[in-house]
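subagent[fold] <- orchestrator: predict structure for attached chain, return tokens only, no commentary.
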Amino acid sequence: MTLLLFAIFLAACFAAGSTGALFAPGDWYRDLRKPTWTPPGWMFSVVWTVLYLLMSWAAARVAVSEGGGLALALWALQIALNTLWTPVFFGLHRARVGMVIIILLWVSVAATSVAFYLVDSLAGVLMVPYIAWVSVAACLNYSILRLNPELSAANPAP
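subagent[fold] -> orchestrator:
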């Protein structure tokens, strides 16, 4: 693994993560009814920083491994979906569409993890915390929809 590859994948991750600064949760999210197990706000930036480091390390390992093409294509798909969720959920306030995106994200992260594992077992293991966190995020998105039925309206106001 080269440091340059790691830096390139990390840049892609932080580009995806920058949507969190562009579309901050704000008052809309603060005022939603949320489950009692909702992680505290400070936790999100800490967890995502660690996840982005692990995802980049895993991708860099696969990039220098033979037969990693499909695995890296799946990585590109999941980072695109990761990038999309924040502006849809926090920017457009479309929790229902966000739910669809996060399900697709979960599937793509699971597929990426398996593909990584088949190319480089450590790379696959490095993706486990990510699939765990996306699982929590999907449950949170679903719980917010259930606790705020007005979000399921066809055209909720942003």
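orchestrator: received. Logging for downstream: The chain has eight helices and no strands. The helical segments are 3-17, 19-22, 26-30, 41-63, 69-91, 95-119, 121-126, 128-147.
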